[in-house]
């Protein structure tokens, strides 16, 4: 049975902060953010956009692209580490906003940035096991990354969502969930206590934990597929907290195979996957899938029938290295989504506007906000302790 990603959708907030502007405001050489980290713009969600509205927009785009009706979805999972409620899952809000039917398994997954991959792997197994009975899965990765003003993590924030329609006979990427390399370790590299809206991170340690994880997961993958090397992949997409991290990951992977020039293949194998992430920043669970989208949307090479390596990392930690085969026509399908125009339509915030949004977010959960999102999925505020949203169906 062929299973994998049939269609995808992407949502980014309607505004962003330019990292050159942020660097100047923080008294930092802009080249540190632009080249040292490899990010040029960071998505900033205004108060009427949140993890739910981003997830709903991405999911709506994915369903339209797949031409799948809401009642064909038998499994709806949102992977997120920035949920909006301790009990009610983001996926239930998405179900309501999109009109997904009642005969559907609906829940949320959490393991830092790995939560979406956990859901994807489970969806692939759900289909292979026969439990789907012809229905499709909708897996949504949605997050708003926040470290707080003036912190070392500040230039590695971002916001966005990627939704994946997962099915038999997929039209984008075939995946084999029976041969994935895993690595999990109890570490305290990045976390967000229940009382905090901002994440805490032991930054340089988190980089080392990520590198340990890719080494462990890739070794495991190579045991499951003896003889495979990095040269067997036309491209590699990594979890991208910032572009330079993907470069470090690629070097690590190549060094494991004693490549004497570990960076030489970076441009050919990795660069195309970083074009969109450099414009959006870290979107946590969706980050790897934005990198995959970027590869399919921007690579100048025809990838039909080619193998792509994928690496997902969630702090704490759990990581997975797996591989997919690009289905002929996938690049044209992703290019047709018009993601370049979506990014260009965003509004640049001044540093004062950005800081005002960041501060106001502390209270945004309890106050109704002025809704102004253009596409109809909007957070309206909290009434009687219930979050309220509007969407095109309301
Ligand atoms: N011009 C060009 N490059 C410059 C420069 C300049 N003027 N100044 C510094 N640089 C380079 C540095 O050499 C460095 O590059 P290398 O890593 O190749 O050496 C890079 O810019 C960053 O510089 P620093 O390491 O000095 O930066 P920092 O101490 O301020 O912190 C960080 C960087 C640790 C990534 C911090 O931004 C952070 O904590 N971010 C959040 C944590 C994170 O993203 N971790 C990633 C792994 S964990 C993960 O992936 C899960 C997740 O999504 C969170």
Describe this entry's structure for a reader.
It is a single chain. This protein is of the alpha+beta class and 394 residues long. The chain has helices spanning 19-26, 30-37, 51-66, 90-98, 115-128, 203-224, 243-256, 266-269, 277-280, 287-298, 330-335, 339-344, 351-360; strands at residues 3-11, 15-18, 41-44, 73-79, 105-109, 136-145, 158-168, 173-175, 181-184, 190-191, 200-201, 235-238, 307-314, 318-326, 347-348, 378-383, 386-390. The strands form four sheets. Strands 1, 4, 5, 6, 7, 8, 9, 12, 13 and 14 form a ten-stranded mixed sheet that branches. Helix 1 packs across helix 2, helix 3 (51-66) packs across helix 4 and helix 6 (203-224) packs across helix 7. The chain is globular, with a radius of gyration of 20 Å. The mean pLDDT is 96. Bound molecules: acetoacetyl-coenzyme A (CAA). Acetoacetyl-coenzyme A binds at residues 29, 31-32, 35-37, 113, 152-153, 155-156, 189-190, 201, 203-204, 206-207, 210, 239, 241-242, 244-245, 282, 284, 313, 315.
Low-confidence runs of at least 5 consecutive residues? none
Element-level helix/strand string: EEHHEHEHEHEEEEEEHEHHHHEEHHEHEE
Q: What share of residues is helical?
A: 25-40%
Estimate what percentage of residues fall within beta strands: 15-25%
Ligand inventory reads:
acetoacetyl-coenzyme A
